[in-house]
Amino acid sequence: MKYLVILILAVTSCKSPTEKKTEPKTKTYLDIHNEAIVIDTHNDILMKVEDQGVVFDQDLTGKTHSDLERWKKGGLDVQIFSVFCDGDTENAYAVANREMDSLDAVVARNPNKIVKVANSKELLAAVKEHKIAAMFGVEGGHMIEGDLDKLETLYNRGARYLSLTHNAAPDWATSAADETTHPDLEEKGLTDFGVQVIKKMNALGMLIDVSHSGEQTFWDVIKLTDKPIIASHSSVYNLASSRRNLKDDQIKAIAKNGGVIMVNFHPNFIDNSFKAKEEAFLEKHATEGDSLIKSGMDSWYMKDYLYKKYAAETNKIRPALSVLIDHIDYIVKLVGVDYVGLGSDFDGINITPLQLDDVTGYPLITKALVEKGYTEEDIIKILGSNFLRVLDANEIKK
Question: What is the pTM of this model?
Answer without folding.
Answer: 0.93
